[in-house]
């Protein structure tokens, strides 16, 4: 009798392991990244001015992370951290790479193995659609870094409509799986949403992971006239055009999410959404109530709208307040897919699912760190305390629980805490390496086509 009981319990355990593995293997992952979206610029973030019904539905289907962060305050380094699960300064990706297809150094270092490559090990189809901005040489291209299906542009920014394809970065031809295309879509944002929907409808059997990287609402703002007219009530012209761009992106996200529903893949798809950095307010965005903009290590540069949705596995319409980060995407995705985390180096992301479900009640991250300009500008968050270190200035200390806008510097009032946090920041900084490529520096006044941030090198 005892042997039969043991055998039965063993059968149950083996069955549960098999069922768990099957569920994990069937989980899709969709990572959606917007470009320069302001912290307050979505309905689910409280905006009544910019209506985003599709993002609002996505937030209602999952968890809105009120303290969602990215690992850098501007474009390319954030993406490098996202795709590796590591602080990008660990491998020297601290600047935006200059667009130069002949330069084998400018881009995400080839020493790093990327998220889609680990997912491929688990039997996943992989896709990248949208903006790359991680190196333009053939070896740096997405089709050589683990993405089997590729569609988008390789540089750091692009026109949205009515361009003549040429060698300039903002008017490059779109590429599909490495081949340049002649056609110019009616609107790039809409086209990216349609392309994602086509991929989803064509991939209903084998599990997949897809990285959808919009260049909206980054400048140049080129919304359709029809969409611009819907925001005629906004008197500021830049803000109006920006809002229309956000709205078109929201529609494209709705197209992708609808394709999941139409193919019965909603409940087996883990979806992330966040911006790559804070908004650039001179271009029309709004980071309120945060201090700072894109390119700053204040909250307005690194704190972003952040959603995690997995219907049936995560609570719907929930909020989660402890800090989470874009670095967590890889660890969470691999866990959902049943793929073991690599152990070949230091990985900084964590699997968020146990935290978002309440299974684990501690914080995913006690500390988060930022560094830019190679040791000149740094910051860290420890619990609710924020340390900011800027060139040629005294260190600053803020209590984010009571001072979200970082307006009251407490450095002089809390010297012992300041010293403790400063030592921790120095320890983390000592683990990092020097920049691996010279890149292009970010100037807040220079974001559009022809500017310093998207120069070509011949």
Helices and strands, with pairings:
Elements: H1 2-25, E1 28-34, H2 53-60, E2 63-65, E3 68-69, H3 75-84, H4 115-121, E4 125-131, E5 149-153, E6 175-176, E7 179-180, H5 188-202, E8 208-213, H6 225-229, H7 237-262, E9 269-275, H8 299-302, E10 306-309, E11 318-320, E12 324-325, H9 328-337, H10 353-356, E13 367-372, E14 377-382, E15 385-389, E16 396-399, H11 415-430
Parallel strand pairs: 1-8, 1-9, 2-11, 3-12, 4-5, 4-8
Antiparallel strand pairs: 2-10, 5-6, 6-7, 9-10, 13-14, 14-15, 15-16
Helix pairs in contact: 2-7, 5-7
Please tell me about this protein's structure:
With 458 residues, this protein is of the alpha/beta class. It has 2 domains: 27-367, Alkaline Phosphatase, subunit A (3-Layer(aba) Sandwich), CATH 3.40.720.10; 375-430, Arylsulfatase, C-terminal domain. The protein is built from 11 helices and 16 strands. The strands form 3 sheets. The protein has a 10-stranded mixed sheet with strand order 7-6-5-4-8-1-9-10-2-11, sandwiched between helices. Strands 13-14-15-16 form a 4-stranded antiparallel sheet, covered by helices on one side. A hairpin with a 6-residue loop joins strand 15 and strand 16. The termini are far apart.
